[in-house]
Amino acid sequence: MELVVQPLGRALSVQPGQNLLGVLEANGIPISYSCKSGRCGTCRCRILEGKVLESGRDAKITNPDDDNHVLACMSVLTENCVIEIPEPDEIVHHPAKIIKGTVVSLENLTHDIKRLVVKSPKQLSFSPGQYATLQFTAEHIRPYSMACLPDDDILEFHIRAVPHGRVTSYVFNELKVGDAIRISGPMGTAYLRKKHTGPILCIAGGTGLAPVLAIVRGATSAGLNNPIHLYFGARSSADIYGLAWLESIALQNPNLHIHVIVSTNEADSKYRIGLVTDAVEQDWRDLTGWRAYLCGAPPMVDAAKLIVKRKGIANEHVYADAFYASAN
Q1: Which of 50, 88, 183, 201 lies at a 20 to 30 A Cα distance from 116?
Q2: pLDDT by residue (tens digit) across 113-136?
Q3: Is residue 35 packed enough to be buried (19+ CB in 10 Å), middle (13-18) or exposed (0-12)?
């Protein structure tokens, strides 16, 4: 059988039953990966012609609904096939790890958001914008985005209280400084693309600010000169946090432009009123050549995807990890 890999134009001779990721690795085809078990979503590629036998689709948590995308690590070749790998010049290889950390700080950022800081003797390799799974106890496990950079000496997470949420109730009511945490990752495809030189659009809702903070911190640390427009949406002024961090980054990076939007029409509000997606809709006529990072609740992410694609950002240049609330 033949496997054709675009946009490289490589034609590979393959055998039925071979694992797609294994074939790509064996032939030196650049593709991102981490866990190799269908959880992290990093090794996504698109089937252009033919088909593969894919298992574990219920575990695909990153962009599960877009057209003809599969996870290479969970895909078996069964016939002639043409695939497209994403951005071969922006490949990341962060082998999945499980590390142990200790809580060194728990800080209230708003009435329902905590900043969790963890220190570990071992470093977790990741790209800004990715996330990890935190295991507080055997019964309290949830994924959260890193708000820090990989070379920081701590790991930082922002956790919003979910009503009746078993994990967040534990974090807010029982977790304390000195407690041990297991951290596994990294996961996610909405990581900073450092080789892109054009404008960047970041849209964050609520604690979606955490990965966006990592992205703008990463861009600033790397000395990127891209214009960055960051739209941060919150329910009310009481739900806004992190502005001091953003303003500090903006002092270092004059290309960073911060837009804060609240959806509640408050009297004498110093913030723009409305939906964060409406603000983007109003502010930009053409986003051709931009890259977009969308982080937050699924309805916001879905609406933002439609807007940015309609305004000219190619589907493959929209990076999104929606936050799914859970009571578990």
Answers
A1: 201
A2: 999 999 999 999 999 999 999 999
A3: buried
How crowded is residue 210: how many other Cβ atoms within 10 Å of its Cβ?
Answer: 27
Q: Are residues 221 and 181 in the same domain?
A: no
Supply the angle between the helices 298-310 and 276-283 in degrees, to the nearest 10.
10
The predicted model gives 17-30 an average pLDDT of: 91
Per the listing, tokens 């911190």 go with 217
Alpha helices per DSSP H over the chain: 20-26, 166-173, 209-221, 243-252, 276-283, 298-310
Q: Check whether residue 115 and residue 180 sit in a common domain.
A: yes
| Paired tokens of 17 | 């039953």
85-113: b or e for each residue (b if 16 or more CB lie within 10 Å)? Answer: bbeeeeebebebbebebebeebeebbebb
| Domain end call among 50, 84, 118 | 84
In sign, the C-alpha dihedral spanning 280, 285, 291, 297 is: positive
- pLDDT beyond 50 at 63: no
**Phi then psi dihedrals of residue 212, to 5 deg:** -65, -40
pLDDT tens-place string over residues 135-169: 999 999 999 999 999 999 999 999 999 998 999 99
Q: Is residue 213 part of a domain?
A: yes
CA-to-CA dists, residue 42 to 23, 72, 154, angstroms: 16, 9, 23
Global confidence as pTM: 0.86
Number of domains in the chain: 3
Q: Report yes or no: 211 and 146 within 8 Å, Cβ to Cβ.
A: yes
Is 8:85 a contact under the CB 8 Å cutoff?
yes
- Output Rg (C-alpha) for the chain, integer angstroms: 20
